[in-house]
Amino acid sequence: MKPAAFDLSFAGSLDEALGAIAGSDGAKPVSGGCSLGPMLNLRLARPSALVDLRRVSELRALNRSATFLEIGAGWTHAEFEDGVVPDVSAGLMRRVAHGIAYRAVRNRGTIGGSLAHADPAADWISTMAVLDARLTLRGPAGMREVAMGDFMIAAYTTVLAPDELLTAVRVPVLSGSAKVGYHKICRKTGEFAQAIGAVVLDGGSGLARVVAGAVEAPPLVLAGAGAALAAGDPAGALVVANAEIDTALAGLPEAFRAIHKVAVERAFSDAGI
To answer: Is residue 234 part of a domain?
Structure first.
């Protein structure tokens, strides 16, 4: 199929992009187009206009401090994979980027587009949840910052207003002693995950988090498991994680819960915890 007719404009700046979105009822921003493109062709999405963001230099900024790296939303998965974007997450972001779909997709898809699309099975959704990242949103009313845990409301649904753009992701700088693990279960390489497990343990920054992702909803931040990890009890953390998964996914089939438990357990193993 072909998409329904729409107008296309190319924004040269963030203000221009925001103005174009606000000035056209039903306009959608597009960067890599890896998710929106197929939806347009299937006519699952029928925006009146598209605003191309690839020329917006503000979305390609990198700002680093001693405690965080702020990454513009326009950086591609391939640029994480290739080390163009500095990896302050003890190797986690680079490894995750390498496992996203196929190289052709990684060359065009962007971190901001993936997060804004909010597919529960997408890698960046779970990765930013386990890193406790913060997202910068900008609209006509100005700029606001939200925690990753508050950003995604449900599958494909976020707190982004129709006239707002996700402009940057703020990731904490992990220490040299940090342990990170990530495991996703797919039927074959390149497909979206059926289950994701992610863990970060960093005594230097005090970050201890465990996440179960690809749960057909926002990622499950397993707070009890994280607390057990922080207390130095990795074996107990796994037991607590399994119990938390059972509770959070109680209405879903046992096999669905089991595959997420396996993903989390393998993330622990991957981290050497």
So the answer is: yes
CB atoms within 10 A of CB 6: 16
Range of 208's domain?
A: 179-271
Single pTM value for the model = 0.94
Token readout for 249 is 């996914």
The one-letter amino acid code at 131 reads L
CATH assignment at residue 15: 3.30.43.10
- Would residue 1 count as lying in a domain? no
* Residues 273, 260: Cα–Cα separation, whole Å: 18
- For every one of its 273 residues, what pLDDT tens digit does the chain have, with 9 covering 90 and above? 687 787 888 999 999 999 999 877 788 888 887 777 777 777 877 878 889 999 999 999 999 999 999 999 999 999 999 999 999 999 999 999 999 999 999 999 999 999 999 999 999 999 999 999 999 999 998 999 999 999 999 999 999 999 999 999 999 999 999 999 999 999 888 788 999 999 999 998 899 999 999 999 999 999 999 999 999 999 999 999 999 999 999 999 999 999 999 999 999 999 998
Beta bridge partners of 10: 52
Residues 73, 130: one domain?
yes
CB distance 200 to 208 below 8 Å: yes
Do 72 and 132 lie in one domain? The reply is yes
- What total number of domains does the chain contain? 3
Domain co-membership, 93 together with 166: yes
